[in-house]
Amino acid sequence: RGSAAVVRDLAGLRVAISAGGTREAIDPVRFIGNHSSGRQGYALAATALARGAEVTLVAANTALPDPAGVRTVPVRSTAELAEAMRAAARDADVVVMAAAVADFRPVAAAASKIKKTGAGPAPIELTENPDILAELSASRAKPEQLVVGFAAETDDVLANGRAKLARKGCDLLVVNQVGDGRAFGTPDNEAVVLAPDGSSVPVPHGSKESVADAVWDAVAARLP
Ligand code: CTP
Ligand code: CA
């Protein structure tokens, strides 16, 4: 898109985007988390804003400046992210789950800092978190609401992506290829946007902003 005038093709739309990675408390000072920076979600927010959308960004543990003009809601745990996304999705036309959600959380966080006892570490019992993307896909505020998910896959990337798209029930799944496989046909493709109609649109290698714009292109093509 470069310095060309930005087309405001998302004007009048409300979008809710999750970004970053959730953290699950082990005790008051420790957590289970992941390395997500939130940059892809922030790029989605910035590009949606530039294209005219009204943007809510639910940001899980990011260390990025709040984008001007975007309503940013900071969260930590998966439960907090789920609550904030449910609220934002209520009046959203498009919902994008770009956050890396912790699959598991400790059954209970210790109230006090866990101390060494000399007897070795106690195991931490985990339980599975709810699937927010599947929930938001299944309980849409309105039938025409679009729901977008992200996934990173290895091995048979397209088959894994198709299975995940079906399991989640979302309208678009942006599948990133990780590892060495060149499953997308050309070395320039680092992602593919899958839809339930069987379409798969390759996203050329590029910045997080260019991937974000490709996502909004796919969304814009599906708007009612
Ligand atoms: N996601 C979610 N809630 C979860 C886990 C994932 O909403 N508890 C969302 C992510 O934000 C992402 C999509 O689901 O948009 C795919 O995440 P991924 O981790 O690939 O899916 P999982 O169902 O957790 O499958 P896997 O076992 O491959 O990790
Ligand atoms: Ca997962």
From TrEMBL:
Protein's pathway: Cofactor biosynthesis; coenzyme A biosynthesis; CoA from (R)-pantothenate: step 2/5; Cofactor biosynthesis; coenzyme A biosynthesis; CoA from (R)-pantothenate: step 3/5
Residues reported to bind CTP: D103, K113, P130, D131, I132, L133, F150, K164, K168
Residues that span the membrane, as ranges: none
Cofactor: FMN; Mg(2+)
Domain of life: Bacteria
Cofactor note: Binds 1 FMN per subunit.
Annotated DNA/pantothenate metabolism flavoprotein C-terminal domain residues: 10-221
Keyword Chloroplast: no
Ranges where the record places region Phosphopantothenate--cysteine ligase: 15-224
An example Gene Ontology biological process: pantothenate catabolic process
Protein EC: 4.1.1.36, 6.3.2.5
Known catalytic reactions: N-[(R)-4-phosphopantothenoyl]-L-cysteine + H(+) = (R)-4'-phosphopantetheine + CO2; (R)-4'-phosphopantothenate + L-cysteine + CTP = N-[(R)-4-phosphopantothenoyl]-L-cysteine + CMP + diphosphate + H(+)
Alphabetic keyword roster: Decarboxylase, Flavoprotein, FMN, Ligase, Lyase, Magnesium, Metal-binding, Multifunctional enzyme
Molecular function per GO: FMN binding; metal ion binding; phosphopantothenate--cysteine ligase activity; phosphopantothenoylcysteine decarboxylase activity
GO cellular component, one term: phosphopantothenoylcysteine decarboxylase complex
Protein family according to the UniProt entry: In the N-terminal section; belongs to the HFCD (homo-oligomeric flavin containing Cys decarboxylase) superfamily.
Protein role: Catalyzes two steps in the biosynthesis of coenzyme A. In the first step cysteine is conjugated to 4'-phosphopantothenate to form 4-phosphopantothenoylcysteine, in the latter compound is decarboxylated to form 4'-phosphopantotheine.
Name of the protein this chain belongs to: Coenzyme A biosynthesis bifunctional protein CoaBC
Lineage summary: Bacteria, Bacillati, Actinomycetota, Actinomycetes, Streptosporangiales
Complete-protein stretch covered: 173 to 396 of 396
